[in-house]
Amino acid sequence: MTDTTPSLDQMANTAPTPAPLSGEQMEDMSREWNYHPDLPLQNPSIFQWPPNPAFLIGWLARNWLTLSERVMMVILAVALWYFFYPSLETAQSFAFGWIAQIYVINFVMIFAVAGGLHWYFYIRKGQGKKLKFERRDQGKNNKLWDFSDQVKDNMFWSLGSGVFQLTGFQVVTMWLMANGYAPVITFAENPVWFLAWLVIIPMWSAFHFYWVHRLLHQPFLYKRVHSLHHRNVNIGPWSGFSMHPVEHFIYLTTLCVHWVVASHPIHLYFHIVFQGPGAAMSHTGYEDLLIKDKRKLVLGTFYHQLHHRYYECNYGNQEMPWDRWFGTFHDGSPEATAETRARKKRMFG
Asked: How far apart are CA 109 and CA 118, in angstroms?
């Protein structure tokens, strides 16, 4: 990487608000995309200096005091813990039965979420192209993808390597918890940490994702591993968890945090939902789910859509400051596109 790391003083200061795009630039962007939010992208990160209590309270309310995608994931995690996954007592010894149970549940969960989103947005076309970033549909009859079909290619890698490795990390973590090798808490023992850890897990995931993602964009790993995921310039729900087996392993090491940080199984299951089905949601290709023309559920972000089109930018997510701090932020402007293309040329020659 040729990016220079800013000083601590530079990191501490919130970047100035970028000027709006000109009318001509907005027309160019409107020709390039079916839909895009207001540009240039602003800074929605909670890590701002000086701290902004009103912004932080609003962020907490949007994400945790409404029926947001994160709250829905926690509800699913509780249901998985109470009704579906085997107990920790069962996981004290490795056995085919409970491991197969987890595999089947994970397979059905990924299939239902990614498949359900694909059916609604791309088969039923329940929202048409409202809030859809790309103009194009999913690719077919192209040898770029296995089976010459983007959706079949993505399903193969998501349900094959993806579900297998997600289950493997979960099985090992449950075994460690069940045998006292990983710290386990209950809500009754520590309610403050129980709730705080739920809020922190997506932040930890974003921190881990940024750094392993930059690793995967190093030329050696990109060409041999990460390029499989980046076949999907025009992403869809099945694209999110479609990865090379080596990338699945690297991506899912985020779950190893539960080996050392005190957690309840609900925390582990929330994390699993966030990494698996959550990837399908964030790669839907639409910004939000509309119900009666009202935005009801956050899905993809233009921030990550820019990464899939221009590659060497926006490695993290828009709530965390890493791309802004380390000079890899694309705000949707033509100037940022030029900078990103120059970075790519430096990296790959």
From this structure: 14
